[in-house]
# Entry
Amino acid sequence: MTDRLGAVLAGAVPRVCPAAVALIAVDGSVAATAATGELVRYAGAEGTLAAERPPAGHDSIFDLASISKLFTTAVLLSLAEEGAIGLDEPVAAWIPGHDPRVTPRRLLTHTAGLPPTRRIDLELPGADASERMEAMLRTPIAHPVGGPYLYSDVGLVIAGRVAELAGGAPLDALVRARVTDVLGLPDTGYRPAALARAALLARVAATEWKPERPGPGCVRGEVHDETAYALGGVAGHAGLFATAGDLLAFGEALRQGGGGVLRRESVAEMLRDQGAEGAAFRHGLGVRIGDPAIVGPLSGAFGHSGFTGTSLVVDPARGLTVVLLTNAVHPVRGRDGIRELRHAVAGEALRLRELQPLT
# Structure
């Protein structure tokens, strides 16, 4: 069974991505796992092969990109359980002067009327992370509040800051205390390069060639997303790194109703269609339901994708959790085939499900 999943990945590496790791769990047990490719394949944008090309392994660490949004959501929902925030309370309660129509629920459903992105690094090239964050919080509403759906990294940046203000700690500390420590996820966190642990960094997949960043070669161990990088590497929309095993455990916690991170009723609200109009899928709180870009044949599954080439798909009805981690932006973005790879991995998960009776 693992051989079939390995063949799926091998068919995409290195054409679609230089490295790929996939895990499929059926009814909570790992049914297939595969890892292939090289964590660092290229020395620069021109495609010259790197002098050292370490192989990808099952313990390799990848930049999760927008899958980070699910962890921010979990933190916000845990704060809501404690009464520290109200999902329908104006964020102006924590960010004075903000548009009173904007609420955490609207931020998590991308219906707050905020623009998709903001290159604050280019707007404020000489500013520090805190100055840039203050500017992000003052981003004006540019579209109708309440819908239609408009995917916005800016909205999740603000959501992450609301979590910090309501939770009384930096976002990375909140994610650690409320999610990763609870679930025992040792390899999930922000800014692995800043930890200055050579053994850890050696397990991290490289991403894009960015000559504006310090250091030689492609980005490795620092967040790929430019806005998250400009905000210090920790933001509500991007910045987390993880192994496939850790991400699988997070997905399984949601599939099983919270796993000690959230109450069942909070997970149910997270996975409820929030009625955001105009999207190609249904939208819960922070999660996409039936996103055709990632679920393939697993109709009704929920999850999220990441720009770096990652995806988490959870199908409670079929008892499936599917993780795919790649570095499809290495050495440059714009590769074709990542959607097809996601669908192929989801298809293999469905095949494995059909081989086993539902429990």
